Each structure stands twice: as C-alpha cells, then as structure tokens.
Amino acid sequence: MRRTGTIWLMAGFIYSLTACNKAAPLTRTANDLQSVVDAPSTDAKTDRPTETGEGLPGYLIDPAKLAIETQDNLRTIVGSAAAVRSVQGPAASLRVLLIRVDKRSAKFQKNNQDWTLNGSQIVAVQADVAGAFKIQGSITADELLFLKLEDSAGAQIHYRSTAMASSVLWIEGNAAQPLDADHAAQISAQVTAAQSDARATEVARLIEQLKTTGQCRNCNLAGADLSGLEIVSCDLSFSNLMAAKFVLANLASCNFTNSNLSQADFTQANLAGANLTQTDLSGAVFTGANTDGVVGTQIPRP
Question: Which of 130, 136, 178, 226 could covalently link to 81 via disulfide, CB atoms 3.0 to 4.6 Å apart?
Fold first, then answer.
C-alpha cells in the first residue's frame, strides 16, 4: 500500500507539471513571490523588467486603471479590475505596497544613471483575483510616495536606466507616473533640492546656537560661513568644519580639538590661545591670522 501510494503521488505530480506547462501562466500569489524575484526571466517581451530591474518581473500596475483622491494629507488609491496584471494581460492577485520617502533625509545612492532611495512602508494590501485593490496612506509636502508590487527589495525604490520599472509608480499629486527616465530625473532633482534646503536650515540653526551659547561640539558646519563672528572661548571640538570660512572671526581661546579643519579659511582671524590638538589642518588658510599662543599643533606658514 505504501509503494502504491508513492507511485500514485508521483504520477499525480507529473500530470500536474504537464498540465501547468501546457496551460496559460498561473497567477502568482504572495507565497511564491520570492521564486518570481529570484528566477531568471525567460520572456523575450521588451516591456518586461528583467530580474535585475526594479519591481516584480513580469507584472505591472496599470496607471490608467487607478483613481487617486486627496483629502488633506491622505491619499486614497483605488485600482479597478486588472490594475494589477501580468504583462501578457491576465489579472494577478499580488501584494501592493505604499512606500513613503522623506526627501529631506532620504539616503540617495546614485551610480551613473541608476539610483536607489530608501523609504518606509506605510501599508500593504492584497489585490483581489480580479487585480483590483484599494490602499490609503498619508504624506506631507516633504515626502515622495510610491506604489509598487511587493518584491525582495521591500521599501527600496530603484531606478535603472536599462530596465523598465512597470511594477513601480510614483504618486505625484493625483497622478500615477511611471518610473521612466524623465520622472526619475524629476525625483532626483526634488530630493537634491529638499536636502539642500534642509542643510541650509540646519546650518543656520547651528550658527545661531554657536553665537548664543558658544557651544557647538560635534557639529557639522562643513562649508559654513562663520566670517566675522565674535565667539571667544567657543567649543567646536569633534566637529566637521571642512572648508568653513572664519574670515575676520574672533576665535580667541576656542577649542577645536579633534575637529576637521581641512581647507578652512582663517584669513585675518584671531586664533590667539586656541586649542588645535589633533585637528586636520590640510589645506587650511591662515593668511594674516593671529596665531599667538595656539596649542596642539604648529600652524603651517604660507
């Protein structure tokens, strides 16, 4: 009986494999997503992402089948039947993720025309057997919103210039945009601008703190302009002051211990009695500066 059962199971298994090979492609489910991501593509269609592309190979979200509503900071995205489908056409029941990326603090890795943004997953829903779904999430003006089919990359958003990201959409206002070259450039520009603005705001805050309290230990003021400041006995130890400008600043008795002062400009600054122990002074400029009583290093002379 045990041998007979084994033969029957093997025969059933072989029959099942044969039937699957002859039938239309099976709808993928959440349980076999990993095999979809890892398996090499055998489809020669040009609109199918490769296994090295962004999203879930062979599947897409159709922007034409999405309705997007905005109420205050809440986005509601409704996908009608076949909004989630394979590139061959049949609807697919897959998990849909809503990914939020803060432009101001996004970790933006760029390699030539390819890049990666690290975000956070707001919510995930399962599209029904008809490929329809409804998903909601909040977003602020400082954030980017993406809709994607679940894959092994999770909350990462990749753009690859050589791959079509048909299973990832950028939600901009009430429109769903494909992650193509034009929109990738717009996203890149928004992230860069937001981080530039955020950096300027942070530098202004740190300078005000320094002027008010004389304390800015472990601060990042790289490239900041502190020219003309009166900050006698200030503490700027363990700080990044690379390429900062201290022209005509009064820095008498300031503590710069363990700080990066490479390429900093101390032209005509007052550094009398300052502590420059274990600082990086490579490329720093001290033209006309008062360096009487400086401790911890020997000021390079022009």
Answer: 130
Residue bearing tokens 């003021």: 221
**Environment class of residue 244 by beta-carbon count within 10 Å: exposed (0-12), middle (13-18) or buried (19+)?**
buried
Is residue 145 a contact partner of residue 219, using CB atoms and an 8 Å limit?
Answer: no
Q: Which residues contact 190 (CB under 8 A, 6 or more apart)?
A: 103, 144
Q: Count the helix, strand and coil residues of the chain and give each as a percent rounded to the nearest 5.
A: 20, 30, 50
The whole-angstrom separation of Cα 281 and Cα 23 is: 71
Number of neighbours of residue 251 by Cβ within 10 angstroms: 25
Q: Length of the chain, please?
A: 302
* Domain positions in the chain: 48-187, 214-302
Q: C-alpha angle with apex 203: 201 to 208, nearest 5 degrees?
A: 95
Selecting from 3.50.50, 2.60.120, 3.30.310, 2.60.40, what CATH number does the domain 48-187 have?
2.60.40
Residues 23-38: b if buried by 16+ CB within 10 A, e if exposed? eeeeebeeeebeebee
Residue type, 57: P
* CB atoms near residue 133 (< 10 Å): 22
Contact 240, 280 (CB under 8 A): no
Distance CA 55, CA 207 (A): 43
Find the angle CA(105)-CA(234)-CA(300) to the nearest 5 degrees.
Answer: 95
**138-173 pLDDT, tens per residue?**
999 899 999 999 988 889 998 888 776 689 999 998
- Is the pTM for the entire model greater than 0.85? no
pLDDT, tens digit (0-9, with 9 covering 90-100), for 66-123 = 999 999 889 999 999 999 999 888 999 999 999 999 998 887 777 777 888 999 999 9
The 8-class DSSP code of residue 51 comes to T
